[in-house]
Amino acid sequence: MLRETSTPVEDPSTARLLLRDLRATLLDFRRRQGFGRGISAVQIGETRRVIYMEIEGREYELINPEFTWRSEEKFELWDDCFSFPELMVRLERHRRIVLRYQRATGEWRVLEAEDSLAELIQHEMDHLDGVLAVDHARTSHDLAMRAQVLRK
Ligand SMILES: [Zn+2]
Q1: For residue 14, how far is its CA from the centre of ligand 1 (angstroms)?
Q2: Given the DSSP bridges, would you call strands 143-145 and 87-94 parallel, antiparallel or unpaired?
């Protein structure tokens, strides 16, 4: 399922229930695992282009998100994923991005992000196209168990 490409949402108002499910799933996961900032619909079995994120006290509900710009500058980080919580992957992400997305009302919005928000968005956007963090690992040294990375 995680390898599938999600399809656009034709009527954004139909994504409201899905967004509620995504939020509940993310918050439940965070309570149990102690991390988790974002989730894509495919992670709960719905191949629709919908992302829910909660980071730094803000909630983001993104329907049909698309990048309109990505900086040439990149940075390296250890990424993790809700769908394989014990594994971490060292990878590169664009430092800054600009995204357009729809709200449940159908209205289009623009979101500019950098650093932690930007890398989170890139992670979740990958899910919509069936791409996983592990696909970005360049060598086996870029893969580690969570406990190992947190000890560093
Ligand atoms: Zn993920």
Answers
A1: 23
A2: antiparallel
